[in-house]
Structures are given as structure tokens and as C-alpha cells.
Write a structure and sequence with these properties.
The protein is mostly beta strands. It folds into two domains: about 40 residues, no CATH class; about 120 residues, Mu homology domain, subdomain B (Immunoglobulin-like, Sandwich), CATH 2.60.40.1170. About 0% of the residues lie in helices and about 40% in strands. It contains one helix and eleven strands. It has a four-stranded antiparallel beta sheet with strand order 4-5-10-7, with no helix packed on it. It is elongated and about 80 Å long.
């Protein structure tokens, strides 16, 4: 049975009245939090039994970044660099991604964008270089089920990524000079 009549909601000195004729599908009664502890009172006058959902919102000052789920960091290790400290055309760089997983999670993908024109090297094939890629390492207790070395990004797919710290590395050759501005690296459960 749909409720009819009026409902009174009060928190401390603040109160709201909900008239079920004006709001037949229910309404939201926002009440400010009292400075001191207060009791929430809800009273319905009329027929039916409406239900109540209570949510509390509070703004708290952030003192440090908050991580929810995954943290990721990228480290660039020069393998073959013409000028130390400066990236140039033809330089080879090893990218190390460190993933901090807060919880065990299934089907996780890591996506790391690469500079325009750069080539991700593999151990074989057209873009292969066994010598330049031989130092690539993976750490932690998870290994990618599949890796994609695309023209615009590197992707690693994990069937299972347990809680803890994991690392994955790949090697790329830069085909242009300059400072590279890239979108952020992403890690997410699918």
C-alpha cells in the first residue's frame, strides 16, 4: 500500500515535513549535521509504512593522497641513450611499471601510453631485438596472461592480480626528439 499522509523528520533542532500527496513517490529531506551529537527522529502520520534511507555526507580535509584499489608508478631506465639526461631519436628506454594492488582482483588490465612514433620492441619479429629486450623483468607473484604492444600503448592483461606490489617492464625505441607529454598510465579491473 502506498503511503499517504505526512512524515516528520528531525535531527537535533532541524526538521522537515514530507507531504505524501505532493510527493507520492517519496522525497529527500536534507538535514544539516548538528555541531553536537543529535538523535534522528522519524514519525509518520497516515496510512501505509514508508521506508527511510539515511546517508551521511561530510567533507574532510585531505592530508595525503587517498588510494582506492590500485596505485601505479612509472620509471624510465635508459638502455641506449646518446646524451645522458636527454631523450633523442633512436634512444632505447626500458619502462618499469610498479603496481600496488590493495586487494586480490581478477581480470586486471594495465595500459601505458607511449610517445607518438615510438616503437615497443619485442624479442622477435619485425620490431624484435633479443639483445635490447633481454633484461626485461617482472616482479611479484603475478604474470600477464597476455601482452599487447600497440603503436600507441602497451597493455598487459592479468587473469589474477593478487594483493601486493607487482612490476612489469617493456622496452621501446624513441623515433623522435623532445619532451613527451603523455596521458596517465591506467590500471583497472575489467
Amino acid at each position: 500500500m502506498k503511503p499517504a499522509g505526512k512524515s516528520h523528520v528531525a535531527l537535533g533542532k532541524e526538521g522537515r515535513l514530507i507531504d505524501w500527496t505532493a510527493f507520492p513517490n517519496g522525497a529527500t529531506a536534507f538535514l544539516p549535521l548538528a555541531a553536537e551529537p543529535a538523535t534522528l527522529h522519524v514519525k509518520h502520520e497516515g496510512r501505509g509504512e514508508p521506508y527511510v534511507s539515511v546517508t551521511t555526507l561530510a567533507a574532510l580535509p585531505l592530508k595525503a593522497p587517498v588510494a582506492r584499489g590500485y596505485g601505479i608508478s612509472r620509471e624510465l631506465l635508459p638502455i641506449d641513450q646518446k646524451t645522458p639526461g636527454k631523450w633523442s631519436r633512436g634512444d632505447v628506454v626500458r619502462v618499469r611499471l610498479a603496481i600496488d594492488a590493495r586487494d586480490d582482483m581478477g581480470w586486471v588490465v594495465v595500459e601505458d601510453p607511449i610517445p607518438a612514433g615510438a616503437s615497443i620492441l619485442s624479442g622477435s619479429g619485425k620490431r624484435g631485438s633479443v639483445l635490447l629486450t633481454q633484461g626485461e623483468a617482472e616482479g611479484g607473484s603475478a604474470w600477464p596472461a597476455w601482452q599487447e604492444r600497440l603503436f600507441d600503448s602497451y597493455r598487459a592483461y592479468y587473469e589474477w592480480l593478487p594483493r601486493g606490489r607487482h612490476t612489469v617492464e617493456y622496452t621501446l625505441r624513441l623515433n623522435g626528439d623532445g619532451a613527451f607529454k603523455l596521458p596517465p598510465t591506467r590500471v583497472e579491473a575489467m
